[in-house]
């Protein structure tokens, strides 16, 4: 896979072999996935599958490929920029994304068994933009998160990958990784903000199919 130009800390452009290229042919790749896939309804807060750590992906086979296709289809139906497998009820550590970074560049990909890098203190610049989640439909809340993130894991074939995100894409990588460990963004809010988010959700009809909770 081709390498993408990145910028080092001095702002000089260089080729960095460590990070995957999830930018080239983003539109074509996203379209191919979702056209092969079938959209599935989205699980919402309260569904047990969202509130526990998912299982590691160990089989990098056709079934995983079909799951990823279905996730892209579901993400598009729900107009999301990221989707974790447990958001369509599947207990596996994989997420997909289709998200713009802080320079408006579109990133498309899938990551299995993601782990976030711990950021050194000087890279922890918090951004307190609004955040929302397809599993908390209709709700938004400000949530400070680092504006830079690196996720390491495996691709659909089991190859080791590292992905770097800035701006909203950094937020997305953190949000989706959280999902696979059983955390929603509202779990990171204060009690009062969490209550407010759930109230926003109760007051609005989801704009896409969801799985009703028992
Ligand atoms: Zn979410």
Number of strands: 13
Tally of distinct domains:
1
The low-confidence runs, each spanning 5 or more residues with pLDDT under 50, are 1-5
Ligands present: zinc ion
Rg over CA atoms: 17 Å
CATH superfamily: Peptide deformylase
Structural class: alpha+beta
Main beta sheet: strand number and arrangement? 5 strands, antiparallel
Strand % is 25-35%
Strand-and-helix sequence, N→C?
A: EEHEHEEEEEEEEEHHE
CATH class value: Alpha Beta
Tell me the CATH topology: Peptide Deformylase
Describe the model:
- With 214 residues, this protein is α+β, with helices and mostly antiparallel strands.
- It has one domain: Peptide deformylase (Peptide Deformylase, Alpha-Beta Complex).
- Helices cover 25% and strands 26% of the residues.
- The chain is built from four helices and 13 strands.
- It has helices at residues 26-36, 62-77, 167-180, 191-203, and strands at 5-7, 13-15, 42-43, 82-84, 94-100, 106-116, 126-127, 130-132, 140-142, 145-146, 148-154, 160-166, 210-211.
- The strands form five sheets. A five-stranded antiparallel beta sheet has the order 4-5-6-11-12, with helices on both faces. A two-stranded antiparallel ribbon has the order 1-2.
- It is globular, with a radius of gyration of 17 Å.
- Zinc ion binds at residues 133-135, 175, 179.
- GO terms for molecular function: metal ion binding; peptide deformylase activity.
Which helices and strands appear, and what pairs or packs with what?
Blueprint lengths: L4 E3 L5 E3 L10 H11 L5 E2 L18 H16 L4 E3 L9 E7 L5 E11 L9 E2 L2 E3 L7 E3 L2 E2 L1 E7 L5 E7 H14 L10 H13 L6 E2 L3
Parallel strand pairs: 3-13
Antiparallel strand pairs: 1-2, 4-5, 5-6, 6-11, 7-10, 8-9, 11-12
This protein binds zinc ion.
